[in-house]
Design brief:
By secondary structure, this protein is mainly α. It has one domain. It contains one helix and no strands.
Length: 121
């Protein structure tokens, strides 16, 4: 009986070892599967990060382009305003100069004719 009991215990122990080996193999498979999933998740995260960075660069470039466009428009508007004011000032100066020249010419003609009259009498 002792031998029978020992045989049962040996079989039980062998079964237990086999169950442990099977459980260990299953755990190893689950761990490998989990590592694969983790690697996939990491790869997806990297791809998304790259896409987000690229999108961020595109947005930043678009924002810089828009800021440059607005700055150019503002500069152009300011330049146009300055040029228009300069043209208006030039017209005012020209008009003022013409008036001064006309007055001076009128004065010279008046003096000339006044001198001629004096000589004529």
């Amino acid at each position: 009986m002792d031998s029978h009991k020992q045989e049962d215990e040996t079989q039980e122990f062998s079964k237990s070892v086999a169950d442990m080996a099977s459980a260990e193999a299953a755990a190893a498979q689950r761990a490998e599967k989990a590592r694969g999933k983790a690697a996939d998740i990491v790869a997806d995260a990297r791809e998304k990060a790259v896409l987000l960075v690229e999108e961020g660069h595109k947005k930043a470039a678009a924002e810089r382009a828009e800021l440059l466009r607005k700055a150019e428009e503002k500069t152009q508007a300011e330049c146009t305003k300055i040029v228009d004011k300069a043209k208006a000032d030039a017209k005012d100066i020209e008009s003022s100069s013409k008036i001064k020249v006309e007055r001076a010419a009128t004065k010279i003609y008046a003096e000339f004719f006044a001198t001629k009259r004096k000589k004529a009498y």
